[in-house]
Amino acid sequence: MPTQSTELEKRLIEQIHREGPLTFRDFMQAALYDPDFGYYNTERLKIGAQGDYYTSSNVHPAFGALLASAFAELWAGSSEPLTIVEFGPGTGQLAFDVLSAMRDEQPAVFDQVSYVLVEVSPVMRTRQQDKLNAFKQLTRWCALEDLERSPVAGIVFSNEFVDALPVHRASYCGDVLEELYVGAYPAGLAMFWGTPSTERLRQYVDQLVDHLVDHFGMSLREGQIIEINLEMLDWLTSVSRALKNGFLITIDYGDTANLLYGEGRESGTIRSFYRHRLIDSPLKRIGEQDITASVNFTALIESGRNLGFELVSYERQTAFLIRLGLVERIASQEFSGTPGNIKGRLALKNLLVPGGVGDNFRVLIQKRTR
């Protein structure tokens, strides 16, 4: 049974009739961030059992506690106070868990910490402020542009932020690079292939192909769909201006280019979620379902190197958490057999076991060197 058109879909159809087709990137931008009807700007809860998906930060407070430990370890030996900048802070739960753990387990760092949240959604900002009321003296909200004007020393990090940035989609037809567009038809919105909207797409694909050939002896295949996250590269450039000294930590769903574009990866990595179900098309429930694309960590590493970021580590989130003491934290918990205690232990193990929340995520740490 077809789903009913949303208000945002109707608005986009009208816009396309007036101005012409949208690139998939512009469609995704509207679907997620339209000021009135975009997914992240509506009141409906997105994260957790009543939402559309789980994040590691909402599985158990231990995730934030282990991050707090990593932050303190990275900043050890610095004479400067620590500024933590979080992009895409969600409900504010992760910030709350990080600050709570730092207060209880890293008091010397906590005494000099400040926490900056970069959030574009007014709805989410309000939720974060409510959640972080106990730490209101340490927290502030600002835009990335503000940080570029007044750079900080500290740790910039994101957890499942980059995969929600809008992406272009491209593919080769013969030797011709094409871009995916969204048009309006009598039956509704539909996608079609056309000429690339910007020369930056060709440049990105040329660099990607060169890297795949030089490092892995492989290339893209005809008809293979890839996502091109120019927004991510622009964000990284801005972060390089906002961070004068310190570390950039990116935690997200994705992989290196050779694995993202290897055999069996013909249809790209776009995924849509609604009520914890994987939806087969981003054109359904527009504004009411989440849309994400896997992060090309190779692009983050190589572009970061050109911007003055040195690679510190890149690993599975599970390995990262184990290294920080997740197993010991599980073992140290008292087991009472009560429903709440059992649920908490199972949640912790979900960060650890193969196929759990943490198994498909990667953690990239880069250090600002110039």
Give an overview of the whole structure.
By secondary structure, the protein is of the alpha/beta class. It has a single domain, classed as Rossmann fold, CATH 3.40.50. It is 38% helix and 25% strand. Strands 2, 3, 4, 5, 10, 14, 15 and 16 form an eight-stranded mixed sheet that branches. Strands 1, 6, 7, 8 and 9 form a five-stranded antiparallel sheet that branches. Strands 12-11-13 form a three-stranded antiparallel sheet. The N and C termini lie far apart (56 Å).
Secondary-structure element pattern, one letter each: HEHHEHHEHEHEEEEHEHEHEEEEHEHHHE
Distance between the termini: 56 Å
Estimate the mean pLDDT confidence.
Answer: 89
The domain count comes to 1
CATH fold label = Rossmann fold
Number of helical regions: 14
What profile does the largest beta sheet have? Answer: 8 strands, mixed
- Fraction of residues in H or I helices: 25-40%
Structural class: alpha/beta
Shape: globular
The CATH architecture can be given as 3-Layer(aba) Sandwich
Radius of gyration: 21 Å
| DSSP E strands, number | 16
Q: Could you name the CATH class?
A: Alpha Beta
Oligomer: single chain
Strand content: 15-25%
**pLDDT below 50 for ≥5 consecutive residues: which ranges?**
48-54, 336-342
